[in-house]
Amino acid sequence: MSPEARLVLRQDPAKVARLDPDKPLTIGRAANNQLCLASWEAVAPHHAVVRFSVEHGWLVCDWGSPLGTFCRGRRVRRCQPLADGDAITLGSDGPVLLFQLIADKAGQPVPTAPVASGAAARGRTSAVATPRLTRSATAASTSAAAAAARSEE
Question: What percent of the chain is predicted at pLDDT more than 90?
């Protein structure tokens, strides 16, 4: 069973697109997209697609749009796994789509697939989980690395 999800337009939260794991959601200005954003100049006619993969979970894929697709502050080169709460920005100043997992019938949020990094992100190996560091964990690891470097001197 695949997790249910949706995209919510940050600029107008009443606009919601429910995602179907069996049917990719195409996004762009052209009228033949499932999610047509005709009034946004930063959006290409065929800009991006959100689809479900059994192996990788929900993915956002850029279709070679001139102004790019961004997720977690980074440009999406091909496809990138999505996590609950991710913001997908179309173009540098275009619309922002919020990816949201829909809770199961017991009210529990559905987990996402692990985030791939390095060779796994390029499809060369299976996905490997990348831990998400909090600001305090990042500061602690930076301090530990600095201390280790000083001890090697």
Answer: 62
CA atoms within 13 A on the CB side of 65: 30
Residue 44's nearest CA partner among 52, 33, 54, 53 is 33
The contacts of residue 1 (CB under 8 Å, 6+ apart) are: none
82 alpha carbon, distance to own chain's centre: 3
Q: Give per-residue pLDDT as tens, 21-42.
A: 999 999 999 999 999 999 999 9
Q: Is pTM, for the whole model, over 0.90? A: no
Half-sphere exposure of 35 (CA within 13 A, CB side): 27
The CA-based diameter of the chain, rounded to the nearest angstrom, is 62
d(CA 115, CA 121): 8
Scanning the chain, the segments in alpha helix (DSSP H) are 135-152
